[in-house]
Amino acid sequence: MGECNGVEYVGVGVGVDDELAPLRVDNFKKVSVLPLVFLIFYEVSGGPFGIEDSVGAAGPLLALLGFLIFPFIWSIPEALITAEMGTMFPENGGYVVWVSSALGPYWGFQQGWMKWLSGVIDNALYPVLFLDYLDSAIPSLSSGLPRIAAVLALTVVLTYMNYRGLHIVGSAATLLGLFSILPFVIMGFVAIPKLKPSRWLEVEKDVDWSLYLNTLFWNLNYWDSISTLAGEVENPKKTLPKSLFYALILVVLGYFFPLLIGTGAVPLDRQAWTDGYFADVATMVGGVWLSWWITGAAAASNLGMFIAEMSSDSFQLLGMAERGMLPSIFAKRSSYGTPLTGILFSASGVLLLSWMSFREIIAAENFLYCLGMILEFIAFVRLRIKYPAASRPYKIPLGRIGSILMCVPPTVLICIVLALSSLKVAIVSLIAVMIGLLLQPCLKCMEKKRWLKFSVSSDLPDLYCENHEQPDDS
Fold first, then answer.
1. Is the Cα dihedral 109, 413, 258, 206 positive or negative?
2. How far apart are alpha carbons 429 and 435 in whole angstroms?
3. How many Cα atoms within 13 Å fall on the side-chain side of residue 67?
4. What are the backbone dihedrals phi and psi of residue 325, each rounded to the nearest 5 degrees, phi first?
5. 207: Cα separation from own chain's centroid
6. Using one digit for the tens of pLDDT, what is the confidence trace for 369-425?
7. Which H/E stretch holds residue 78?
8. In the predicted model, what is the mean pLDDT of residues 327-346?
9. CB neighbours (10 Å) of residue 93?
10. What would the mean pLDDT of 68-74 be, rounded to a whole number?
11. Phi/psi of residue 38, each to 5°?
12. What stretch of H or E contains 8?
């Protein structure tokens, strides 16, 4: 059987007893469990920075309940699907490969387009937020040419870090993660004498449901992003599910614990619960020194989220090129093993979209992400039905009906998030989708006319092999 870093990788239509040529194993350093946990942490969360709006929108009780209940509705199903599908297809491209295998290359391309665009929109936010945290110390960065230059310089520096290697990004994410989490642990101990449990039960009558749900959704999605790096993971059969499990615990505790401390230690001022309010809570609880630490941690968190997201986006483009969906230039690696063209394209997208406002960025990326997730759920269920005997190193312990039922609550949530989107966001997002629907045939035309070179990696198994299909024996 073909092996990829310890994983028996076979095509979906190939049973566990069939043979495939061995996959090529690159000499580049692979990502192990700890860096992978923090890469997932930063692709999903990055810490409690940005969750303050949940309290402002709905009050302490609903905010706390939201970050406890929402993971069961959304995060756990998405993480489980990522673990199963990511080990079933341990190659770069992730969810693009899943959808291609289930629905064909056209819809795989649409998945890649929507998810890549959603990721780039998301990444455009982080340099801007990083500079927002520096405004008080360096007022000249608040607007004008100095701010534009700072965004450009920051993007270049972080892009170069991605270029130098995924192991460097993983190590940086680990250090930044520890630096970002530690001040909240300290704040929790310092705040114990000031906690009043009755504050946790306060409920607001005028709930801003759109802001509340978008805040929860934005802070608890993107679990599938790590799948686009599966080809760079050391022994993904074991490492990917294990890392997703550890990261899930880290993310949920990283949200719930600071919210518990912040809402219980200080009187509720609903209008004050906006981005950056945890620094004010730290001042009231522990003093200025703790406030400065949390402000620095928030700035560092934005750097971590940027490098993690860019890694995911750029390796996704590499995976798509290896499957012949993008020109071959996207499949070329630098001397450090990184996808240079994908990195440059992702960085360019970040710079072009950095003018958007915070609310517009969250709403637009959520809209596109929701559409992509619908395709993922369809692909997951279809592959369970169509290829029940395909090799799945990690398999969710649910049958066909259970798999379908697991996807129902998050699908309902997707419909709610889409329904709450503004008309402006819906129009802009649907225009972006239309571009993808037209882009794929245009690329195929260019391939046919030999204007651009496309190729499928010979090291990857056939996604569309039907002759080995086996009946469902469940």
1. positive
2. 10
3. 31
4. -85, -25
5. 27
6. 889 999 999 999 999 999 888 889 999 998 889 999 999 999 998 998 888 878 888
7. helix 76-88
8. 92
9. 29
10. 93
11. -75, -25
12. strand 7-8
